[in-house]
Predict the structure.
Amino acid sequence: MAETKVIEVVGGIIRREGKFLLGRRPLGKSQGGKWEFIGGKIESGETPEQALARECMEEIALPIINAKIRTSVTHAYPDRMIHLTLIDCEPVPDAEPKALEHDALGWFTAADALKLDFCPADIELLPVVFK
């Protein structure tokens, strides 16, 4: 049996005024229509915090501050294995996100976020994030 390469990815627990910023994946992509923490793959030589800062700029044009690793999980999808690291952070004051790669963005309370249809890897971490 071939060894499965684990893909290292990050997601941001982006908070402002008691709400969390989440994005919905476009229908044409893997896990399309599901909600997720904003983020993506860690590139060679990057720390998780650096990867999240880059991904936030690429995906939502939002600079972030106060990044601190919170939790992680390894999840097996049918076609790949990922190790997702979630990072607490906040947007730079007065900066507003723009949906560059998601079909929707929203600020949600923990209670409202728990009603969304999340990607499976994210679901495993919801009790930790929204406790």
